[in-house]
Amino acid sequence: MKQTIQTSWLFRSVLKWALFLFGLFLLAVGSSMMITAQLGVSTWDVLHLGLQNKTPFSVGTIILLVGLLLVFVKYLLDQITPQVGTLVNAIFVGVFMNLVLGSGLLPSFSSLWQNTLWLIAGIFIIGMGAGLYVAVGYGAGPRDGLTLTLAERFGTSIRMMRTFMEITACGIGWLLGGPVFFGTILSIFLIGPFLQFWLGHFRRMIAAIDAGTIPRKQQKIS
């Protein structure tokens, strides 16, 4: 019979915030892996790297500033105070990106097949990180929140508005010198399925935490 550990409200809250931040960290790690693979990056990172080419800021700082700008624009449109998790998302992904890229711990590869595998691993980790922070439910990311607001404002579907924003960000980034290559196309088709895969697993885990019970392995008594 499966055994469980009863948890307090404070422990559950701390654990969920830790998982939320870890999801953002994984998101930053995966994005950093895509950058170091040098085979193209996700659509929004095309914009971030394009802006980095034209400013003295690091890519992590650019991500932070763009995230906060999107949160502010959403607030101007709907006058709804952003959730704490949304602000944490906007700030910490950029902070983690600076830490990961500045650490020098990520390897570099010379062959195409190694960089391709590294790229796909990065996309997989992005899906894992996004699935984790979405499952915790502490606030939509800056881009997701603005997508919902704009779709409602202009009376379009969320899918159509998301596609428009992705293409716009990628196009502006490309014009600024951001890297668009087959990795960009792969990210468009793979991040969604990877996110969906992990989201189901993490939602079950968060549901167990919210219920106040954490499964543990039953020890055999010899």
Outline:
The protein has 222 residues and is mainly alpha-helical. 75% of the residues lie in helices and 4% in strands.
Count of domain modules? 1
Order of neighbouring strands in the sheet with most strands: 1-2
Q: What is the helix/strand order?
A: EHHHHHHHHE
Topology, number of strands: 2
Rg (CA only): 19 Å
Percent of residues in beta strands: under 5%
Total DSSP helices: 8
Task: Describe the fold and architecture.
With 222 residues, the chain is mainly alpha-helical. The protein has one domain (3-215). It contains eight helices and two strands; from the N terminus they run βααααααααβ. The protein has a two-stranded antiparallel ribbon. The protein is globular, with a radius of gyration of 19 Å.
List keywords for this structure.
222 residues, mainly alpha, 2 strands, two-stranded antiparallel sheet, disordered C terminus, 4% strand, globular
SSE map:
Layout: E1 3-6, H1 9-37, H2 43-54, H3 59-78, H4 84-103, H5 112-136, H6 142-154, H7 158-175, H8 182-210, E2 213-216
Antiparallel strand pairs: 1-2
Helix pairs in contact: 1-4, 1-5, 1-8, 2-3, 2-7, 3-4, 3-6, 5-8, 6-7
